[in-house]
Amino acid sequence: MRTLVMPLGLAAALLSPAAFAQNAVTTPLPAAQAAQQIAEPADVLTLDDALALAAGRNFTLSAAGHELDAAEGGIMQARTIPNPEVAVLFEDNRRDTRTTTAQVNLPIELGGKRAARIGAAQKAREFAQSQLGATRTDLRAAVLGGFFAVVIAQERVKLARGSAEIAAKGAQAAIRRVAAGKIAPLEESKARVEQANAELEVADAEAALAIARQSLAGLWGSSEARFQEAAGNLDTLPARPDGAGLTQALDSAPELASRRLELERRQAIIGVERSRQYPDLTISLGSKRDNGSDRGTMPVLGVSLPLPLFDRNQGNLYAALRQADKAADEYRATQVRLANELQQATRQLTVSRSSADTLKGTVLPAARQAYEAATRGFEAGKFNFLDVLDAQRTWFQARIRYLGVVANAYQAATTIDRILGR
After folding, report:
1. Containing H/E element for 101?
2. Where is the signal peptide (predicted)?
3. Which of 307, 422, 412 is nearest to 355 (CA)?
4. Buried b vs exposed e over 377-405: b needs ≥16 C-beta within 10 Å?
5. How far apart, in whole angstroms, are the C-alpha atoms of residue 202 and residue 332?
6. Domains delineated in the chain
């Protein structure tokens, strides 16, 4: 006996090629997201420009969008039902005594497999949507942090260059006073050392600026930064609400929502694996013709059902249960971690704002006043050059510390926004 079994789709193609081709052409497919090509400014870059560039050209964000498209395809596939089969059986090679049987085997899913499968696919889509939102939030936070890192690095370069100019003028003044015999040559050597240190500070600041510019440009997929300057205001420090308001907002944090949806997806997969414990029923309909008898064509009706004696999908169900337990633990771990990070960032922002107010209102004016007084006293011959160098170093360090405090404030505010999805 020879048996020929073919999928119904192949049989339909053989019987009606035109109709099958039409169905294949009209099958909907997920549309790919087209990346927006936005030109990077060649001169001044604003924060809005940076956000728009990252939103349109960041590959991580577009990859998350493609993942969402793939989840739509998963729902499309989950909604399909099993294909029937066409089977043709020939018994005996001799035509006069040959028996021919043609039948259609129709699988029928039992145990709610299709509904469970669709539910799991929908949860996968919701998870992909949450991942896309979390990626967008992380990208925005990265752009904000990177943009103000560039602005702060620019200010540091300006400070370093200003300090280098002051050190150069001090060295020239020391040279003139040594030539006039008013100070010892040792003072000139100290002035030159201070000038060299100031030039090293300029080199370090310029290198840090180049790194910050490249890091920011990398967020929109650029191999080099084409903009000349990032336009940002550091006079106004970021402010965020604290206390119970932030704690309540943590419940809707994007990362926490993603973990929650992942837990729900894992629980939906448990339903899928449970439904697979029920065997599927196969109904066979067809006809049989025996050339060796005069009975003609006889109907064929059959029912088959696998016996779940050995394989009851118990292993996959156990794995799904443990994966759900893992997702639950990861959700709780993420909840604790985000709460700690939010508390630390809030405290850091409060401390940074307080330190910035103190530096800006008291330390910086006093340091600048001391430097100006030491410079005038040195020119009048009342102070030695060491006093000028010490005052200059104190003023420069105070300004650098202020920029560091501002950077910490923006970093803390960015962390809060990233956690809360703002």
Report:
1. strand 99-108
2. 1-21
3. 412
4. ebeeeebbbebbbebbbbbbebbbbbbbb
5. 47
6. 45-83+127-279+315-420 (1.20.1600.10)
